Amino acid sequence: MISFSLKIRSHIRTPDQKRSYNERLFTxxxxxxxxxxRAMSLGRDRSWKRRLVRLLPAVAAPHCVDLACGTGDVxxxxxxxxxxxxxxxxxxxxxxxxxxxxxxxxxxVSFQVGDMCHTLLPDGAADLVTGSYALRNAPVLDDALREVxxxxxxxxxxxxxxxxxxxxxxxxxxxxxxxxxxGGFWGIALHGGPEHAYIAESxxxxxxxxxxxxxxxxxxxxxxxxxxxxxxxLEIILLLKR
Length: 242
What we know:
Number of strands: 7
Radius of gyration: 17 Å
Structural class: alpha/beta
Number of domains: 1
Order of helices and strands: HHHEHEHEEHEHHHEE
Strand content: 15-25%
CATH topology: Rossmann fold
Low-confidence stretches: 1-6
């Protein structure tokens, strides 16, 4: 068993460690994950995810791929909006997929256990790609972005919701400890351990806003628009594959 402590940084130093930590963490919290995200977002999480889906362009009968789909809430939103489309939810953790299958009964949805960095989907398989709290969890961000570009059709769009790291040092000095305490508190309250302090440590490894946009550009993904959530603590980003 993994030890969930506030010294999370030592568990996610390498890609293999981070992948293993994520798999064990999200297995542990799968059945309580939705309640945790609602609590940590003060009830705003669902509205952000709805906004994420609404920002996607109208596409007739698209194939949508929801990366790191978790319990399938965004997958279900995609199925409701694109009723004639095909929706595929992919997550690393079988326990999350089990919850997603139980809650998402739409006829046009399928789920599979898989790694967002290596989906095994054909090149150009997807019209639209989504991910909520996905990219920050990738063991290697460049591998995930390379895979997003590979599976998107030319002119396809991707939309991501995640925590946003400030490029300003003093703001990061406030943001990261605040997130660590907030996530740790809700982890203890809901799961008996400070699991969600992981958010701050994974964000510490993640590029700040300008650097993230540079990474998108390096992988041929153009930022079309972005919207702040929770006073800029998070953001929704819409991308286009050129």
